[in-house]
Amino acid sequence: MRRRTQAIALSIALLLTSGGMTGTSEATDKVKRTAECQGDWLPATPTSPDIMDGRLSFLDLPAVEVGKNVNWRTDPYRNRSWSMVFHSLRWMGRLVADYENTGERSYLARATEIAQDWVKDNPLRGGGSPYAWQEHPIALRAPALVCLSRHVGGSWLTGSLAEHAKMLSNPALYEKGHNHGIDQDIALLGIGCRYNRDEWSGLAIRRLTETVRIDVDSQGALREQAPRYAIYVYDRLKVAMSNIEACGRKVPASIEERWKSLEGFISHSTQPNGFMVPIGDGGADVRPVGYEHPKKTVKVFGNGYVYGRTAWDKPESAFYSIRFGPGAKYHGHEDHLGVTYYAQGRDVLVDVGFHSYENTGYRRWTMSPEAHNVPIVAGARFRPGTSTALTGSSVGEDRQSFRLTDKAYGVPRTRSVLVNHGRDVMAVLDTVPKGSKVRTVWHLAADLSKVSSGGGRVVVKDKSGWKAALVQVAMPSCTPVTSKVVRGASDPYQGWVSPAYLKKQASPAVVSAASTGSLLTVVVPGTGEPSVSCSGGKVSVETSDGAVSLRVSGSKLS
């Protein structure tokens, strides 16, 4: 009873501060455009005509007929992301924005019907859709309702916004240090500024300041372990800062500083072909645009990323990534010690990528070590969430090397990575203690097909005839290590990549036999006939452009 009394009181207060509007606005030749209803938060699909026809298309999935009387328990694809977008009501906000742009009153009338029906069918006390009052739909829906409030009033709307503000203010529901928390702060700020409730807008700014400090480190690296989310956070912080200023408040300097620092992280995470490297929950089809790149071509981010390239703004340049750092969380996968390699204008070693958030066997596999280019201790139990240390590095203009170690399998596993530029070679040395055996999985780009395998060598080519070779030998004996090439297997999953959301494509994966001691893998782009020879600790690699020399000493590669 007390909760209901408080909600009624808040609703009355909001009605008073909003001027007690009821119904829809009077017809005018020119509708005033508002900051709350205009902006890139609005979806491109469905369009207003689609919504008026009762057809909703989200996430590039086929349109769903919802009709005029919407069933808010609709869940056609059993897809949490679809339901989240459905209950965000941003698509309703599309109608209001287009009403402002065109003066088409039927758009505003339908938006009002949709929102009012949602409020009626999804009471906070329960009985509606299970997705209705989850923390992220709340955060995304509130701005759409604030937008509507610029043209429509009534206790049903102000009462719902009061309930949204109450839920957004609840510390138990707040996602601190996460992109959802940023959305929650934007939503609470919007309601607070709309109705002059300083306790709400002030709380939002204070929380946002702390969340940004946690989510974006001092180097600009996003701690959510999926670089593509850095783009989302960058865009949302831009919205937040604009809204803070529009509310007559000052943007905290620390927010702006961390926001600017994200640009460097995004740029370093982008391959020479313009697509972001698909680490963690990041699709291979994400293409950042408009971010200035720094001068450095090699960057180590302490929260778990090594990025290197030969040059900026050249699609044919080489690029690599290496993962380490804190254990997997948020949008991270079990990809520590994993590498990717792009050379001569092509993907060579790739990450399997992101498929969806659905709890399927395939999704679970994409998050596992087997779906990444990592060393695996044969017969040992994997320990999820293990952190990995970067224990050494050497950065030269044409050659870089890094050494990493952890105990993800209960015993130390050490990986040394060396990348040679010009005469393109990536060499990886994986070492485990005496009594253990190590094997590796290498995921190759989907457009590469096997030419041959045997004698410790796998040769692949693309449709143009360009070739690359992967050679594996046990060290220090330099004995060839056998491997098999798997493509499109499902029991267990192996040999797949996800080129886009809800897409998967068969792709070659090289799975080696287990080896005692150390296993050296040499990747040579541009040739199908590299020569790898050993003399003591020296390894010679013959590329199409000439010889490259490496030195192996214990677990070190230089």
UniProtKB/TrEMBL annotation:
Q: What is its main location?
A: periplasm
Any GO CC annotation of this UniProt entry:
periplasmic space
Q: Where in the cell is it found?
A: Periplasm
Question: Pfam family example for this protein?
Answer: Hepar_II_III_N
Q: Which SUPFAM superfamilies match?
A: Chondroitin AC/alginate lyase (SSF48230)
> What residue range is the signal peptide?
1-27
Give the record's keywords alphabetically: Lyase, Periplasm, Signal
Superkingdom classification of source: Bacteria
Q: Which GO terms describe its molecular function?
A: lyase activity
Domain Heparinase II/III-like C-terminal positions: 327-509
Q: Where is the Heparin-sulfate lyase N-terminal domain?
A: 63-301
Q: What PANTHER family does the entry give? A: HEPARIN-SULFATE LYASE
The protein here is known as: Heparinase II/III-like protein
Tell me what organism the protein belongs to. Planobispora siamensis
